[in-house]
Amino acid sequence: MEIYDITEEIYARIYGTMLNSQKYIEFLKNTKSRNLSNKRVERIILNILLNIKAKMMDFEINYVRILGFNKKGQEYLKEIRENNKIENFNVENEFQKKMSL
């Protein structure tokens, strides 16, 4: 499939429930499964409506802007920095925001 985040199985499930559903809520309820959440179905429907192709979503993340994190997040960021998984970090806190005004 060319549409982003959709497989043949998901397409068949969506198409089948679309034909048998009268309302959008009914469609979501009938499409949902153990492996397919309502949110994922909604994202897939948006991808279909907006014609978002898989190749459009194939890109690398070159930077990350961190707005906040906890202790576990600090450990994760340290690991990422040490392994050079992402080149650029921008950690902005309240002090930095106030100093830049």
Automatic annotation (TrEMBL):
<dbReference type="Pfam" id="PF05636">
    <property type="entry name" value="HIGH_NTase1"/>
</dbReference>
<protein>
    <submittedName>
        <fullName>Uncharacterized protein</fullName>
    </submittedName>
</protein>
<dbReference type="InterPro" id="IPR008513">
    <property type="entry name" value="tRNA(Met)_cyd_acetate_ligase"/>
</dbReference>
